[in-house]
Design brief:
With 225 residues, this protein is α/β, with parallel strands linked by helices. Helix content is 46%, strand content 15%. It binds zinc ion.
């Protein structure tokens, strides 16, 4: 199974990818992680990317596609891949199509996790964590049992990641919409887009994705009991 998983930051793509890896024997490839791993490994292509980034430039599509080509050739990708973070632009989508054709891979579906902007802001902006032990909470969905006191360690100090502020979340969401708007028509024209309600609970989202994949002719693998 080869799919592209699309969704704004905070949509739970990481969680859903883990479930999909288990159910379909595919490997998640998050482009950002792939890039960081290559740079850290000091591979020739990693060094090339590092030089570009150190010069303050964006890593080119050419480098990303070559990296992806190498990554897809590894044994752990034999059972399929779940692409996360790529493609982001039309040229990248075209390059990916060429790469799949060249390597004999078939793109089964583009799963789009749809989230309501305001609800997403609420979901992310409500997060906070214990300053002492790091336990994670949410103002609405996972409050502390006693107001202002950490359940785990009793601390009364909490922190809020600056990245989780409503303004930052709205900016990330706008950037996401701007990035994905050109690629969706490309895949819609190929009949590959499957939209899933990403606001539902995690298990419901997972079930909806499975149903969408079944409609694309992809079956979950049999789980040995
Ligand atoms: Zn704590």
């Amino acid at each position: 199974m080869n799919i592209i998983l699309v969704g704004p930051p905070g949509a739970g793509k990481g969680t859903q990818s883990k479930i999909l890896e288990e159910r379909y024997g595919a490997r998640q490839i998050a482009t950002g992680d792939m890039l960081r791993a290559e740079v850290a490994s000091g591979s020739p292509i990693g060094l090339e990317a590092k030089a570009v980034m150190e010069a303050g430039k964006l890593v080119s599509d050419d480098i990303l596609v070559r990296m992806l080509r190498e990554r897809l050739a590894r044994p752990d990708c034999a059972g399929g891949v779940i692409l996360d973070g790529f493609p982001r632009t039309l040229p990248q989508a075209e390059a990916l199509e060429a790469l799949f054709k060249e390597t004999g891979r078939h793109l089964d579906a583009v799963i789009v996790l749809e989230l309501d902007g305001d609800a997403l802001v609420e979901r992310i902006a409500g997060r906070f964590a214990c300053a002492e032990c790091g336990a994670g909470y949410h103002r609405l969905f996972r409050p502390t049992r006693v107001k202002g006191v950490c359940d785990k360690c009793g601390s009364t100090k909490f922190v809020h990641r600056p990245d989780d502020s409503p303004d930052v979340v709205r900016r990330r969401l706008a950037a996401y919409n701007e990035q994905t708007s050109p690629i969706l028509p490309f895949y819609e024209a190929r009949g590959l887009v499957r939209k899933v309600n990403g606001m539902a609970p995690m298990a419901t989202v997972a079930a909806s994705i499975e149903e969408a994949l079944r409609r694309s002719g992809v079956q979950a693998r049999q789980i040995a009991v």
